[in-house]
Amino acid sequence: MHIVIIGGGFAGINLAKELTDQKGIEVTLVDKNNYNFFPPLIYQVATAFLEPSSISYPFRKFFAGKKNLQFRLGELQKVVPSENKIILNNGELHYDQLVFATGAETSYFGMENVKKNAIPMKTLNDAIEMRNALLKNLEKAAICKDIRKRRTLLTIVIAGGGPTGVEVSGMFAEMRKNILLKEYPELDTSVSNVYLVDGGDALLSPMSKESQQDTLNALTKLGVVVKLNTRVVDYKDDTVFFADGNTIQTKNLIWAAGVSAREFEGIPAESYGRGKRMATDAFNKVNGTENIYAIGDTSIQTNDPDFPGGHPQVAQVAIQQGINLAKNFKLMVQNKPLNPFKYNDKGSMAIIGKNKAVVDLPKPKMHFKGVFAWMIWLFIHLISLITYRNRLQTFYNWMIAYFSKDQSLRMIIRPEKRTKADA
């Protein structure tokens, strides 16, 4: 059996790992990047507290020595179900079973100016671009004589009150307190505001009321201006426009407000559900297909009685679906009955700043905050990194940041643009 996996995120990489050295199964993982990365720590790369290599690892290095696993660098363009093949930007692949683990991409809700001008927070490239943009704006502010323009360069608006928005705003607030004036003495009299805006009436909406209130209190104490029931409707000419008519002048709008799955040519329109997610049965097989599966953020499964509206688009769902589907493929080879997917909710968490975090556990129902919750967050994220090398490197960087309240990674590194003749 030849299984082709599209996407090497949480879902895809865990599916591949579970099928390692499995007799009768050959796996080809296809990804447009040649590395796996850890999305929950993207914001720490963007704020220069971690290097990109701390949260990423090359697929070929990871697959080395695993005889039944292969990697293919490419981007999916079309599926041809009648021929059991996919068309990539650089060739074709045939499959016996096809698995979509393509995750989700940033959604701008149809706002073209926001899409063009805001800073997204979804990929490793986004994080590096964000780091470069913010550092360049700090350098511009350091030599800007116009107080109004300087404030625009220094003001940061984060749209989206989920875990990413909360974690980014907390990080920026601590950077402003511990780093900004030390490294940029030219800005000692400047005003630099950090705004966190969300269209809902609470931060961290899926979490408990206690976590929501603790997070709001902690961010406010750090100096973050939290604006709830505030929806972004446009962003142009360095101005963020809100639905209530208010505006904020800024060069830095960070977009963490929503995600959407992708549609692919060759997958029937009736196979898609809410948010462009592929609708699947209890075994993650895409509705209306014979041998095509979807796991993780790109899938929606509504037959789990505990989650009738579909599972949340979080890492644990993707990991567990990848592992369950791998078990089912092994059973398939042995002609044994398959196991339906059942999500085991292990809880949710968010870090706010140094020694500040919130954790909700469902069974038994418990809520933690402060240092203990912060330590849980650190431990869970460390052990979730793909290799020991990533774990050690991240732990080392965190220890430096914890004791020094700083990092030495704030370098503007960007590839030099080459002409076609140079390429």
Task: Write structural notes for this entry.
Keywords: FAD, Flavoprotein, Membrane, NAD, Oxidoreductase, Transit peptide, Transmembrane, Transmembrane helix. InterPro entries: FAD/NAD-bd_sf, FAD/NAD-binding_dom, NDH-2, NDH2-like_C. This is NADH:ubiquinone reductase (non-electrogenic). This protein has 11 helices and 25 strands. It has helices at 10-18, 42-46, 59-63, 112-117, 124-143, 147-154, 163-183, 209-222, 315-333, 370-384, 388-404, and strands at 2-6, 26-31, 35-37, 56-58, 69-73, 76-80, 85-88, 91-94, 97-100, 105-106, 119-120, 156-159, 194-197, 225-227, 232-236, 239-242, 247-249, 252-255, 259-260, 278-280, 292-294, 299-301, 348-353, 356-361, 366-369. The protein has 423 residues and is of the alpha/beta class. The strands form 8 sheets. A 5-stranded parallel β-sheet has the order 5-2-1-9-21. Strands 11-18-12-13-14 form a 5-stranded parallel β-sheet. It has a 3-stranded antiparallel β-sheet with strand order 6-7-8, with no helix packed on it. Among the domains are: 2-32 and 74-104 and 261-333, FAD/NAD(P)-binding domain (3-Layer(bba) Sandwich); 112-258, FAD/NAD(P)-binding domain.
